[in-house]
Amino acid sequence: MWQLFRKTPMWRPRPFRDRYDVVIIGGGVHGLATAYYLGRAGVRDVCVLEKSYLGSGASGRNTAIIRSNYRTPEGVSFYDESVKLYERLAADLGYNLLFSQQGHLTLAHTDSAINGLRVRAEVNQLMGVESRLIWPEEIQRLVPALDLSPRPRYPVLAALYHPPGGIIRHDAVVWAYARGADRMGIAIHPFTEAVGIGTSNGQVTSVLTSRGEIRAGVVVNATAGFCSTVAKMVGLHLPIVTHPLQAFVTEPLKPFLDKVIVSATLHVYVSQTDRGELVIGSEIDPYSSYSSRSTLPFLEATAAHTLELFPCLRRVRVLRQWAGICDMTPDYSPILGEVPGLKGFILDVGWGTYGFKAGPVAGKRIAELIATGRTPELIKPFSLTRFYDDTLVGEKAAAAVSH
Amino acid sequence: MSFLVPCPHCGPRDVYEFRYGGEFQRRPPPTVSDQEWADYLYARRNVAGPAKEWWYHRQGCRRWFLAVRDTRTNAVLEAFWPEDKPEGAG
Amino acid sequence: MDDQPLLGGALRTRLGRVDGPGGLAGLAGWEAARRLAAEVEGEPRIQRLQTATAFGVYEGLLLGVMQGRRLYRVRPRQLIVATGAFEHPLVFQGNDLPGVFLGTGLQRLITLDGVRPGRAAVVVTNADHGWAVAQDLLAVGVEVAAVAEARPELPPAAEALAAAGVKCFAGATIHDARGRRHVEGALLVRLDAGGDPVAGSERLIACDLIAVSTTPEPAGALLAQADGRLGYDPALDAVVPQALASSVHAAGAVTGLSDLGFALLGGRLAGLEAASALGLGGGEASRMATLRAEVEAHRARLRRGLRVRQLTSVPSVGRKRFVCLCEDVTEKDLADAVREGFDHLETLKRYTTVTMGPCQGKMCHLPAIGVTARLTGRGMAETGTTTARPPVQPVPLGVLAGPHHEPVRRTPLHARHAALGATWMDMGAWKRPLLYTSVEAEVRAVREAVGVIDVSTLGKLEVVGREAAAFLEWIHPGRVADLAVGRIRYRVMCDDAGIILDDGTTARLGEDRFFVTTGTGSLEAVGQWLEWWLAGTGRCVHVADVTSAYAAVNLAGPKCREVLARLTDLDLSPGAFPYMAVREALVGGVPALLLRIGFVGELGYEIHAPAEYGAWLWDLLLDAGREHVIRPFGVEAQRVLRLEKLHLIPGHDTDALSNPLEADMAWAVKLDKPDFIGRRLLEAARARGLRQRLVGFELLDGVVPGEGDAVVADGRPIGRVTSSKWSPTLGRGIGMAWIPPELAQEGVEIRIRSAGRLTRGRVVVRPFYDPDGARLKS
Predict the structure, then answer these.
(1) Which residues, in sequence order, are bridge partners of residue B44?
(2) pTM, whole model, 2 decimals?
(3) Does the distance separating the beta carbons of B54 and C535 come in below 8 Å?
(4) What's the mean per-residue pLDDT of chain C?
(5) Cβ-based contacts of A319 with chain C (< 8 Å)
(6) pLDDT beyond 60 at B90
(7) Are strands C590-595 and C582-587 parallel, antiparallel or unpaired?
């Protein structure tokens, strides 16, 4: 009980030093998880730079869905490790993350969508991930409020059911990682923007920040929305196009939905938080932009699609809408690891609409890469070089609108 | 309806009438290196600021044109036919 | 547009006399409101939208407006925001007790609802408005037990109240509200210069009503969303607009100053400025300048006269000191959070949920800033504000959705299929017949006699122009330029990464004229792809989408020539009209384009005729085929038939990473051509060897796997089934699958995991049916 009432800072301001072994750019779940796992691996001369407050970017704007029912074996193994890390994370970090593995349903409204889901179900099962195709009768049992009648323009025909999928309190994950890193002596510098990166002879040497220069031999680009901007500091053009992704929440309702519902055909996904709010999102906006202003057409279309699934929500009111910005790669898989020809520059980018799911595994494996100097097998398929030797990892079918 | 894109043929119209065609770039000659070819296929400047882009007026004149748009604010600074500025601005 | 049923805003709720200019002086507030509203109502050029809430300003100055169940989208060229201001609750012990009201809320109860809100009131204020509230309470017979004014001196308005015997305290405020289920009294306390309660100064006043009337906070959310900058102004003790975007104007209390004269003057200026920006006059520059100066002078005068004392919370302890009444967030919750390091307003908000309730933070935004500023010692301005996200008022999903329109595309033959009792399938927006009778019957009809399928959904492009041949040659991996007039060639199209985009046929109708068909779902993309490569090049090539101009059917089967011969004079003999040829002719009197191609693997004619004659032609064909027991067949039978021929369907058998070499279409890729779209990576793919291959397979066990099932080896997925059907012709299950190249040889056994069980298949690389195409060419 004493612990409950003692109020100590989650993380402390630390002096801003002019050198660290490792500088992590980006104080979101990826940057902070990387810092935490670096600390666990004994690398503690580390600082995390965040241009605004912690979790102010994509980490605080995503819809907090966790799942591993991807399409490729590479993707499934990777995200599965993340789900497993998430399952233990509250205990590891000593912080309640409100992780609810309530189950995740991806709906199919067409024959071809069913085939796409079957590909995933098979790959998932073979990789040991719980995931299967289910049909309207079972869907109705799991989600009584869902309209499974032939009334909608595209009636629900089947679903991919992924029981370990669910939702989490995203901000809490960010804060808990920050606390974990802080406890190991890692410096967290919010409101400190990286504005340049120094290199010399193919080696990263420093980061110029809004508060002064930091010398460092390893610099991690763990940004979302601005990973191209940071990469350009070392003259690198990434295979990334940045798009907005929008979401909204409704007023709180009594619990009526205990599954995450996703429909790629209708471009919508719906879940209900512990607070009772419905969190509803859509696919990325159809044009590239760094503007995180919401739009009215998104609100209208997504409301209409939500009501196709749940006509009973007609009178439920939208409380607020927002947008985040997402770095999309051509194959909807991230870019992880070293950059050929530039030592010490580590990428943890290209997280599109699926970055939050992967925070723990990306942090852990990037930390391993830095601590050991060897790229872990799990993240090898996601290297930047795949765009140069034509070995893309096709997750587009599984990632588009499948939050 | 969101921001407006000034189609050179139809005038300012809602962005949702258009298809976004990505940033403007030239197809390199087939003799370039593998690296340069892969850069052409995948690497993008992805500018946070004024960017020259392709747009197609799907629900209007059905023509492709170029526009310079500030990707931070979505303000379209100019829009023109590609043949009118063969060298372009970038 | 106004969210109330009557125009007039807050003025409608004021009983007191106004001292406004222009003949309004001496009127009660509500009377002045009526007078002003009448002026607007009498102006026919002003369209009014009442009970309409502008809930958000979006990019491009787009307004979302809700009126009942209706949603308006309004894109003004000039926007004037006059949304007024609201009071915020004060944080004190017991501030959630029934009987604690905002002053403006009481005024609404009195004037709009005709309710006497209590018997005895204590008014707590730090602004002149509180004194007007006290007057209004008196006017409707509520005893005002006391007025506690937080500012050190009583304002002039206090005199009248004091004269009426009301106890007026300066430099005082409420410490806590007393009562069990309802307010029974207010404990007032004096404040010292630092804003802390003076010990021993407490005084308990009995009352059943506590009116809290604080510095008006501008309702500036729309201005913020319209790219305005809002910030805390210590002189006004409010978050006020500090800069506005062009085309946006503000007037009235939303600017931070509540004064009728100023509102009228500022409103006039805003209106004239908007009008002049629109080029609608608005007065000469000199008059505008004078008016502007007048507004500024008025503003300066008001600011000079303002006496503010910042007051959001009265320091004390207690568990019932609510900052956010929606979310039950207390001052202690905020204090704990700040101690835990959530000392930035944005993180504090996320941690405690302050400002995140259904009122969107209207009630607690300023108190939250005030409490945070005090806790962190940072000051109001430095503490900042949170982002004003739309919607400003909650909007029902049903209003946003409106009546939902999801388009359906029907072919010109739709009614015929319906009459035949077809089962439908969705293909994009199209409705297509999946099945009429049974797959077996429909397949057998095509294989043994004749069948007909509606293929109107195929994309159809006419590509015309002097350079059309050269352009199509360059954009396709296959050859086009050497195609003879009257001939057809299969086409596959790739992007510059060598990935399959689409397939179809190219028919050369003339030297400069091509008829190009695309997949049902890829028409738009293909049309735009061609146009994109043409844009700005000045090439003499024109692309016209003629899809909906034509109805199209595929007449196929060994007897189809006999059926067609009844309807046309065209010489259908194999010599005159061979396989992969195109002819223009009358069919049943209808001008038609006939393509002799064979997706389903039989002698067949794809007949394109003007859409308006589609049903006529369909009837004629069925009639002409009666003798041979012609059958319409649906998509399901077509898929079986083409699978027996191992004809792939892009997007079904291929995905976003498939190239034609690996998809077993090397014959459609001519790497000996000079540069073409896709050449570079296709050449690289050939050089490095194939990484996977699309092959046919037949099943050795009884089970037909699902499309999408995995091909496995050693318990690992090594490939996937893309198509899988029972073949009535062959009497066994067949399919197509992606597998590793080393397995892609005739006869190799593969294992397919289907519904958790393994089933065996045998790789087949040549078409199952008529592998040499003898029937096609017959």
Answers:
(1) none
(2) 0.94
(3) yes
(4) 94
(5) 356, 358, 360, 391, 394
(6) no
(7) antiparallel
